[in-house]
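Late entry, evening session. Most of the bench is empty. Finally got around to the prediction I had been postponing all week. Sequence below, unchanged from the version circulated by S.P.
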Amino acid sequence: MKKGYYLLLLFCVICSSQINCKYYYKGDKKCIEACKLAVEAERELIQGSKLSQLTFDEAIKLCPRLDFAYKEKAVPYLKRGDFITWKNLIDIAVEINPEANLGYRGWCKYEFLRDYNGAIKDLERLKGIKGDDIGYAQSGDYHLDIILALCYKSLGMTDTAIDLIENRISSKNYFPMKYDYLHLGVLYFRNGDSDKAIRFLSKQINDVGYYAETYYYLALVYFNLGESDLYKKNIMKSKDFYENGKMLSNPYGTVMDKIFYSDIIKLIEEGKNE
């Protein structure tokens, strides 16, 4: 299972960085030239540097319908927190080529802005264009259906979120990504279904990966059920994993369902008082 996930992640990264200029701009010499300039700026120049941004500008001047150039020119603004400039540029890319850019914009709205309604709007619109399989997030960590589910979860629509994740992980030829079972287990826990929470949190441990969060939520389920031995086993495992750096992490923000060391200590103290 883990091997399948990492192969898929590699595939996503490779595909997301490739564009065939001659294929997309058949016979349009200016756009082919512009596309090659944009690819060069994206691959060979320092991201966000003056030279790279000027090269994107040159590409856009040659071919105003080159959505790839607008998208890549926008990226440094997103990373620097200049969301207004980023939005102005990515909105143009979406207008030119919605199928290629809605998923990326929707993921960014979730990942960087916590604009759940905006992300839902983009991803549902993409479903209307592409159908059932809308692809993967730019990071390679999630299928976009899971991002959509997490947006609905954040708006209190847990049943919709559960249905989306269940449908995606049960679909043909889908490899569960590294957080899928964790998020699903937490959703069932929040919905009061302890059996399914235990089932999917256990699958997270057995099939995909190991994080302090998985053991913490298992401990929380068992704590609520009054299963003291299983609670103690899992909360101490969570503490050990956290102290050894095995927890959810993201360089740009907080992963959904992430916990902190203080959460673990608080649950341990609550257990002592029982």
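Two things to note before I forget:
The chain has a mean pLDDT of 91.
The radius of gyration is 21 Å.
Will write this up properly tomorrow.
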